[in-house]
């Protein structure tokens, strides 16, 4: 945000308060096409990313049922070849450090470690920020900062939203995550695995290890993300209504490993892996939003504004939209344009984007993500529509496309309704499959390998194929639930 503001107005005085002395290796490591566009082409970090991070090779999913004992028996969804558009697996400790360094080099005044304590908002006036600095411990208490605009980029701390009572937990989506950085994860592309499972190895001509590999189960998924240097970020996210996390007294890292190794692919990949000491994290109730995203004098960006779900890695996409639009709002205000209509539109667009993004993609997703057949249909539709409707926008229009968050413009109405519908229907079919003991029946010995998508109309064929497969499912089994009232998500 500081970089974007200073790029357009180098005369601005921008002050950054960062409470950490250095950035830890936090989550937010897989970029996708939109966040990669923002980091590489908008912020200009392509060379830095190439030199210091790993090129990402899409997403892969691994399923299990009672017929899966070995790696090559697990049904797989993923790319057959390398990805078509750039994305990276990033170590946030080095990436965030570089972004902050560039902001300071562009002229922002950085106080670090310095913590914002409270913001007194004054619409249209000067905002007052109380802060504490331990840059020089013997210095008298920091005098409050006064600024026409304050940007809350405090992440999950949600400084402003919590202070002002705007923070709202998403009660329809009770998810929890447990994660760590790991050493000793098996190399997915190793000679040893290729020798033991030659057909499995030959099925993918790309690189499996640098994808985001997902283990999936009933009501949960786990990510496995490689980081430059050899460590992996591995964690589990589960729907609290569907998964009971072990309550025994073993350390969290031990329970995390046990959970992962209960999946046959997890057993193969993590048998000799260990979490890095002191790096095991736990967070409940991941999804939340704010009742306000901007006002005359403040803007909320990134996680300080809202968070949906880590599945499909939308966190930094949301960050890209909130930062791009937020900086334009501030610049317009500083030019003397009337702020109220801009703020009203900002709040309307981001409220709608959050609600629709959730309803179209995430609501009740954990009901069906663990079934290979349903996930093959849903994943193909989700991804091809993301390419056609979302990824294609910055490709066609450049960075200005990031001014308009997903699902906030009228042409997105049809795709939104379609996505919400098939996600609901796949969830209903999953519940019915579970009731009839048929959930996950094709989680073994299947492979759904895609050739990759392009951000243009050629991807329309993948949408049509996905729709045809969905229709087939409706005709063969979906009819059982056509007239059944929708029960609350994740009923067992
Ligand atoms: C389990 C999990 C997995 C995820 N995986 C992905 C993924 O693969 N890809 C993806 O795109 N997203 C992912 N996300 C989301 C991603 O982590 C966030 O969207 C992203 O990090 C948000 O960045 P941010 O800058 O808004 O917040 P943060 O990265 O949290 O940064 C906030 C900064 O504010 C500082 N700060 C906080 N309070 C104060 C204060 N009072 N004063 C001064 N400084 C303060 C902090 O020190 C920190 O540096 C994941 C999230 C979770 C929970």
Explain what the structure shows.
By secondary structure, the chain is an alpha+beta fold. It has a domain at 56-83 and 172-284: D-Amino Acid Oxidase, Chain A, domain 2 (2-Layer Sandwich). Helix content is 38%, strand content 18%. It has helices spanning 2-8, 33-42, 46-52, 92-105, 159-164, 191-196, 198-203, 252-261, 264-270, 315-334, 339-362, 365-368, 372-397, 413-435, 460-476, and strands at 15-17, 54-55, 59-62, 76-79, 88-89, 109-111, 114-120, 127-133, 145-147, 150-152, 167-169, 175-183, 212-217, 220-226, 232-239, 274-275, 281-284, 288-290, 294-295, 298-300, 447-450. The strands form 6 sheets. Strands 3, 4, 12, 13, 14, 15, 16, 17 and 21 form a 9-stranded mixed β-sheet that branches. A 3-stranded antiparallel β-sheet has the order 7-8-9. A hairpin with a 2-residue loop joins β13 (212-217) and β14. α11 packs parallel to α14, α13 (372-397) runs antiparallel to α14 (413-435) and α13 packs antiparallel against α15 (460-476). The longest helix has 26 residues, at 372-397. Flavin-adenine dinucleotide binds at residues 17-20, 26-30, 35, 115-116, 153-157, 159, 177, 179, 235, 283, 286, 302-304, 310, 313, 315-316, 319.
């Amino acid at each position: 945000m500081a970089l974007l503001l200073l790029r357009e107005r180098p005369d601005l005085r921008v002050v950054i308060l960062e409470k950490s002395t250095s950035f830890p290796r936090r989550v937010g490591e897989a970029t996708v096409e939109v966040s990669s566009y923002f980091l590489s082409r908008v912020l200009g970090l392509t060379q830095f990313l190439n030199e210091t991070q790993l090129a990402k090779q899409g997403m892969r999913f691994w399923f299990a049922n009672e017929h899966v004992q070995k790696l090559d028996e697990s049904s797989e969804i993923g790319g057959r070849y390398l990805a078509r558009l750039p994305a990276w697996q990033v170590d946030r400790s080095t990436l965030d450090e570089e972004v902050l360094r560039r902001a300071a080099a562009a002229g922002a005044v950085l106080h670090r470690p310095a913590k914002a304590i409270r913001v007194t908002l004054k619409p249209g006036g000067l905002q007052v920020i109380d802060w504490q600095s331990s840059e020089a411990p013997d210095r008298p208490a920091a005098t409050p900062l006064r600024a026409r605009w304050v940007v809350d980029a405090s992440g999950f701390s949600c400084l402003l939203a919590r202070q002002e009572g705007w923070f709202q937990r998403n009660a329809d989506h009770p998810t929890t995550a447990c994660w760590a950085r790991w050493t000793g994860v098996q190399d997915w592309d190793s000679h040893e695995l290729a020798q033991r499972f030659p057909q499995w190895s030959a099925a993918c001509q790309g690189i499996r290890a640098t994808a985001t590999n997902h283990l999936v189960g009933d009501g949960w998924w786990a990510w496995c993300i490689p980081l430059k240097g050899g460590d992996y970020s591995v964690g589990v996210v589960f729907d609290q209504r569907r998964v009971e996390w072990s309550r025994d007294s073993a350390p969290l890292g031990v329970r995390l490993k046990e959970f992962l190794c209960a999946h046959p692919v997890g057993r193969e990949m993590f048998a000799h892996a260990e979490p890095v000491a002191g790096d095991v994290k736990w967070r409940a109730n991941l999804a939340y939003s704010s009742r306000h995203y901007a006002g005359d004098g403040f803007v909320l960006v990134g996680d300080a504004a809202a968070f949906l779900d880590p599945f499909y890695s939308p966190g930094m996409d949301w960050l890209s939209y909130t930062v791009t639009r937020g900086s334009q709002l501030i610049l317009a205000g500083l030019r003397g344009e009337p702020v109220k209509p801009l703020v009203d539109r900002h709040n309307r667009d981001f409220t709608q984007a959050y609600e629709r993004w959730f309803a179209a993609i995430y609501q009740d997703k954990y009901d069906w993500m663990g079934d290979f057949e349903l996930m093959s249909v849903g994943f193909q539709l989700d991804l091809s529509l993301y390419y056609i409707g979302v990824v294609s926008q910055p490709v066609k229009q450049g960075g200005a496309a990031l001014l308009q968050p997903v699902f906030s413009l009228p042409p997105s109405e049809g795709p939104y309704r379609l996505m919400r519908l098939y996600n609901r229907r796949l969830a209903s079919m999953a519940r019915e499959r579970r009731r009839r003991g048929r959930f996950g029946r094709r989680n073994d010995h299947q492979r759904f390998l895609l050739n990759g998508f392009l951000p243009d109309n050629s991807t329309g064929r993948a949408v049509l194929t996905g729709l045809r497969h969905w229709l087939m499912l409706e005709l063969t089994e979906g009819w059982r639930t056509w007239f059944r009232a929708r029960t609350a998500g994740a009923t067992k």
